[in-house]
Write a structure and sequence with these properties.
This protein has 2 domains: 30 residues; 124 residues, Glutaredoxin, CATH 3.40.30.10. It has 181 residues and is an alpha/beta fold. The strands form 2 sheets. The chain has a 5-stranded mixed beta sheet, with helices on one face. Strands 1-2 form a two-stranded antiparallel ribbon. Helix content is 36%, strand content 18%. The protein has 5 helices and 7 strands, in the order αβββαβαβαββα. Keywords: Cytochrome c-type biogenesis, Disulfide bond, Redox-active center. Its main location: other.
Length: 181
């Protein structure tokens, strides 16, 4: 039988303390990892379009939820995107022809350089609203990771489809034809 003298610790006590500390650290790490690793739910076709409020190039406030009556096309883009430069005339044409039927086209710039965006708007004679997405908050709401991307929202403000890359005339006609005359 082993008799312990006062003030002396068993060799097992430091090991037990060390194991408890490791357990607590591991548990904390796993909780932190779980919190950081939470993935947001993916947007699905038919989901309500996430609302946002932003200011366009003319200083007008745009709130998606207030745009009622027709389809909405959100175009996430950047000034150095060759597809954006190439298909902007198609978006311009559709906006001019169908804005009276409720079509709204909104370009959402992923660039924050206002002068570059202003030049892009002027060069391509964009007539519809253009928003600079400061901090990428709108892109985050729509889970946009790459540009260009066009998000088509139906008149009921549900997500109809999303197109990554350039958008041609036939594709615009197919995607918007059911809503426009």
């Amino acid at each position: 039988m082993m008799v312990m003298q006062p003030g002396l610790k068993s060799a097992k006590q430091p090991v037990a303390s060390c194991c408890r500390l490791l357990f607590v650290l591991l548990l904390g790490f796993l909780l932190l990892l779980a919190a950081c690793g939470k993935s947001e739910r993916r947007l699905q076709l038919g989901d309500p379009a996430p609302d946002f409020t932003a200011t366009d190039q003319h200083g007008n406030t745009i709130r998606l939820a207030e745009l009622a009556g027709g389809p909405v096309v959100l175009r996430f883009w950047s000034v150095d995107c060759k597809y954006c430069r190439a298909d902007t005339p198609i978006f311009n044409d559709y906006y001019r022809r169908y804005k009276d039927q409720g079509l709204m086209v909104i370009y959402i710039s992923l660039n924050e350089d206002q002068e570059m965006v202003r030049r892009f708007i002027a060069d391509l004679e964009i007539e519809f609203p253009v928003i600079i997405d400061h901090g990428g908050r709108i892109a985050e709401q729509y889970r946009v990771r790459l540009d260009p991307q066009a998000v088509f929202i139906n008149p009921e403000h549900k997500l109809a489809t999303a197109v990554l890359g350039g958008v041609g005339e036939e594709e615009m006609a197919r995607l918007l034809g059911g809503y426009l005359q």
